[in-house]
Structures are given as structure tokens and as C-alpha cells.
Amino acid sequence: MGVKGALGSADPADPFDIESAAVVITDADRLIVSWSPGAERLTGYPAREVVGHPVASVVAGGNLAAAVSGLRRTDRGWTGVLTARHRAGHTVDLSIRVCPLFGGDGHHGWLVVACDLQDRLEYEFFDAVARGLLVRSPLGIAVLDTDLHWKWANRALTEMEGDRPADADAPASAGDAGEPTFLGNRHARRALVTGQPQVTLDHAPPRHDMARRTRERSFRLRSFFPVRDAQGETLGICLVALHATGQDTARDRLTLLNEASEHIGTTLDLDRTVQELAEVVVPRIADFVAIDLLDEVRLGDGRTGAERSGASGRGDATLHRATHLSLQEDHPEVVVEVGAVTHYPTRSPQRRCLATGKPIREIVHAATPWLVDDPQRWTKLLRLGVHTHLVVPLRARGITMGVVTLLRWKNPEPFDEDDLLLVEELVARAAVCVDNARRFARQHQAALTLQTSLLPPGLPRHNAVEVAHRYLPADPEAGVGGDWFDVIPLSGARVALVVGDVVGHGLHAAASMGRLRAAVQTLADLDLPPDELLTHVDDLVMRLADEAEAAAQGPVVVGATCVYAVYDPVARTMVVARAGHPSPAIAHLREPVEFPDIPAGPPLGLGGLPFESAEIALEEGSVIALYTDGLIEASDRDVDVGMERLCFTLAHPDRPLEELCDIMVRTLLPERPRDDVAFLIARTHALSPDRVVSWDVPADPSAVHVARNNAVRQLARWGLDDIAFTTELIVSELVTNAIKHAYGPIRLRLIHERALICEVSDASHTSPHLRGARTTDEGGRGLFLVAQVAQRWGTRHTSEGKTIWTEQQLPDGT
Questions:
Q1: Residue 17: which of 162, 98, 123 has the closest Cα?
Q2: Do 405 and 282 contact (CB within 8 A), yes or no?
Q3: pTM, full prediction
Q4: Helical pair 270-281 and 417-454, crossing angle rounded to 10 deg
Q5: Closest Cα partner for 81 from 58, 92, 125?
């Protein structure tokens, strides 16, 4: 078979495959009983022309006995080559397999499977090549499943990796399959996810040849690519590895840089980043490395690059030891411990490097000038036999952030120019990662400051409810998320309870949360019903998203949910609306904990969909729990389980609220929640009936006098005679306006709470406006007077009309 033929069948299918091979069944008399389409393709005879005829009729020469005499006997039948006569007149060489078929009567027929002889020879050649490549090749080859567990490995890879059994040429059983220990898991996973081949190059630590003063390097090239079945489904990953040894210095340095790019900067943690740089340098380049950072970098100084560049250019800047690493576990070279201030002499390479921003390489000996000024270092370095000292500035984006010091004594070769260039490249790459970590720390601090300023520093005290809360970020170190809560005093002794959740984490989520919280507070001051308030917040979220899209900055709010509840201690009811948020939990004193059926509105930002409210009657002492979904989804992502656990924690609502909060955290949250969690719990209080009084007011001007007298008498009963005059003025003006400008029914209500609340309700939806009356006007001064004598005033709209309310500060001692 020529090269062209071999190349033309690079991946041949098994010609004996039942879907393509010729299949013939004969009875005991050698008469053809069945004839497959594959048989027709090979011989040209259709089934109607051969079924019922002797099988010898399609054998070249017509002599069946002679044709089968050359077949080879096997354990289950015969195999070999047979020449058939094609319907067109020429002969066809077939590779055949024959086995007997037995019936119930003891007689048997024959099953014959045949294929083109040339196809069979090509497939056997391909199979031999593949088997030789996999089993006997010097290339290390292995197959891993989709979980990256070993399934099969040839002997070359076994010897190369050294962590597989000696018989690794055989497929691994389920019992001894395990996680691969070779370097390159990241590339294997990337090949599995992307479906694209991945190549990696790494090497073992250098082996020093003292006779030739060279370092022999061991390289390992690995390739990972997915293995797929005939339907294109990924079965696993194939690993091909090549091991080589040599003294290719350029390749060695390139490999080290490649590994450094993967190893350094895996996190945005400053301490971890400098430690990763040290792990790359020791032992491949140096026997010891110390990394010292400027004080302002370590503390996350927020000065500009220009300011820091000027400060860092001083050779006397304060340095702190960030990390060090040695070939020896006891670190005999160390003079300064990690975290301590590092004192270098003025003439030391470190101070000169900071002052000039240039690397310094020098030979160390007993008469080294700067060591004379540092006896402690002089003793340690000379006792160890340190012969070369290399100091490189840690510098990125025009900012010098510290110095990196490398020493050699076990490696007999001094640092040369190539070593200096390599270290400069490594340190430059690490410096960018260090600067990124520094910038992240500064941004993180800004985010924490922002969120601290956005969340309520302390919830207001209110007679209607007693509250407690918790905010637990998913990352305690980050501490920044989009969850928020609030308690907002409303008119009429009512209070609003709010919990919201902005999707995402970090500065963006915290800023979005602050904007939404401010919007909710503003709309709450307008005394909007919960469903109407969420409609306005929904419009705001859509407008913010449109503004961000127009500015090409991405969405300001990716998604947000909110629940808004208003509790009335007079009516002892709570009105709730929610926007894509979990329903509140209510713990009654004498009934099981319930999750009331609140209409589930859409998340904020979708627009066009309505929000609905539900009113719930509450007895005094009930506990209301509002929370984000992270609370009930934290344990195992099963919401039903989370809701059951929440019911368990609220089963005793008479416990102190802070204790309930602690129980909720312990019961529902793992040590490290996957999502931010915020919850607010409130115990309801009812306003005593003797603190509320109301009167119906006829739509008659003479009723104003009666309303004033009723109010004054009630204040006397409450012991509030000191504010009777201002209350009489307020009642007179508000009732007069209702009779003159609105229509009935008109109602006057006084509430004795933290303040004296006066409310006048009517059936009109038109709100009064505060204005300044001209000197010639006969009226228009009433509401202005009310605003002057009242501490606060406003309008609250209801489905029946509106309510004008005022609040007056109570006299001392009441």
C-alpha cells in the first residue's frame, strides 16, 4: 500500500461494522436464506436473485469446498479470504468471518460476514499504527474522563509522571481512577470547556553540573485535546506529553516566564501576590529572595501616581518586609521578619535602587563597603558564603513600590547579565500584579466607605415597632454588596419596613443600592401606597438603565428586587407589596408561622407589569421578618428547606429580637454564604385606644367651633393643655379648608404618640398648596400659619380621598 493510500484513509471505519459489511445467512444445505444490502453493494447481486440459491452460485469458480479450504479455524468459527464472482463478471476478493447458527431441531445454518479485502488491510494497518502509537510510542499518552480522572495511560507516561501503576497500559478500573497529579490541570480543564487544544511547557528545577559549570534542564511539553465519539459528544481529554533534557538557556527562560505569567497574580491579595513572585524566583534563579514594599503601598495609600513617584524616589523611604523565601527551611539569611520595618544602610544597593529606580548587581565579599555599615548582615552573608547580590526595583506604571533582593551561595554561578534581564522581566510582570492588588485594596476601601455611608447607621426608634437586623456579605473581607434594609417613619404613627436586593457585588452594586434606597425614602415621604411606590421605583430603575446604555457604560442596575410593608399600629394592619422578592414571614403569638400570599410582582426594571398590595391583620406582639433570598437559599439552594428552617427560628416570637437574629444566622446560614444576606425583623406594637380619638365633622361652617372645642377638651384629658392653643388653631384652619374647598364625609382625628398628630380627612383628591398671601387677599393664610406652628405637616392620599396631617412636639414631661 502506497503513502497516498495510507494518507487517504487517515481515519478508516471498521469494515466489519454490521451497518456496512456484507451479511449472509444460509441454511444447513448451504442455500442462501438472507442477503443484506452490504452484500448487494459488494457483489452486485440483489437479494431476489440469490436468496434460495446455493451459496456456491456467488463463489468464483462455483466450487464452495475449494473456496473455503483456505479459511483459518478460530475458537468460534472460521476467518480468511474468499474470492466471489461479481454480477458484472469480474471477481472480488473478500475478507470473511464464518460461524455456525444452531436451531431448535439441532440443524444449523451459517452466518457469513464479509468486507472488501483492501478495506480490511487498510483498517488493520491503521489499527496497528494506532496501537503502536498509544502503547509503544516514546510519547506519553493518557486519556482522562470529563472529571479529569485517569482512565488509561501508556507506559511512557507512567514512567514520565511516576504516579501511575506499572500496568498503566491497561484501562484504569473505576477503583483506581483518581485525580491527576501532573502540572497542567488548568489546561486540561480549559480544553474540556472550550473544546480547543491546549499546549503547555514546563521544566523541572535545574540540575547543576559542577564539572562543566552548566545547568541541565528537563523540559516537558504537554498537549491536551478533547476526545469525542461518533456523535460529537465529548468523552474526555487526551494528554500527549514529550520529555526532553538539554541546556537550552533561551527556552529555559521562556518557560520560566510562561510559568510565572500563570503563577503570579492569581488573586488581588497583595501579600499573596508577592509570595507568588518569591515562589517563582526560588530556587530556579536565586537561593534566597526578599521583597520589601514601601510603607504607603502596604497601607494602600490613596495618593496619586505622581505624588507616590516623588515619594518613592527618595532613598530614605520607609520599607516593610512583605515576604522572603529561602532554599533552607530555617531561613538563615533573614535579618528582618515579615511585617517589620526594614533598615538598610544609606550606601546599600536597596537604597541606591530606590533612589535611582535602576537594578544593581554586585559581588559580595568581606570588604563590600555598604556591609561594613551593617554588621548583622555582614556576619550572616559571609557565614553562608553569599557571593552575588542582585537588587531590582518593583516598579509599574511609573510608580516604584519597593525592591526585590536576590542572593546566591548554593548555586556556584554568579548572577550574570542574562539573569539580570530575566529577573527584571519577572519583577516587572509581578509589579503590575502588585499595583493591581494595591488599586483593588484602595477601591475596596472606597466601596466599604460608600456602603457604610449608604446603609442606615442606626434604625430610628418607633412606638409602632421594635426592630433588629443583620447584614452579612458573601465575602466578609469584601463587605460590599447590593442588599439593603430600612425603617421609615410615616404619618399617622405608621411605619414602613423595607428590604431590597441589587444583583451583584462591589462598588457598582453598592452605588446602585444607595440610589434605590434614596428613591424609596423620597417616595415614602410622599405617603404613597406600597404598590404605587414600587411602580415609581420600577420607572426609576428603567430610566437609570437607559441613561447608562446611552452613555455606553453598561447597565447601572443589572437587576433588583424589593419588598415594602407599611404597618399601622392604630388599625393593627400591614399593607405589603413586593417586586420579585420573597414574601415576608409572620410569626403569630398563638398560630403557626405563615408566609402570607402577597401577589408576586416582577423584579424592578422590567416595566409594563403591575404591582399589587395585600392587607394583613396583625395582633400586637407579632414578629415580621423581611429578608433577601440569600437567607433561604444559603444552605443547599433548596428554598423549601430554607423556609422550613426560617419557620423554626421564628417559632418563639416572644424571644428578644437580637436573640432571634442570632438564631437565624446559626440555623440558616453556612460559614461562608454564597450570596449577600440582609434581613430585618420587627415586633409590632398597637396604639392604645385611649390614645386615639376621632369625630365626624358636618360640612357646615358652624361645625368648626364644635371641632375646636372637642379637640381642646381631649387635650385636657391627655394633659396637653400647653399646646391647646396651637392645636385649636390647626384644627380650625384644617377643618375650615375641608368644608370650604372639599366635600364630605369629613373626619377629624387626634393621635397621642411621640408627637401630637392631628388629621383631617375628606373625600377630595385635590391637595392644598402652601403659598404666600398678598396684603390685599382676604384669605390664603391658613395653611401658612399651620406650617409655622406645626413641627411637620403633609398630605396622604387614600382610595377614599385625602388626609391633611400635622405633628406637634409634646411638652416636656408628657
A1: 123
A2: no
A3: 0.54
A4: 170
A5: 92
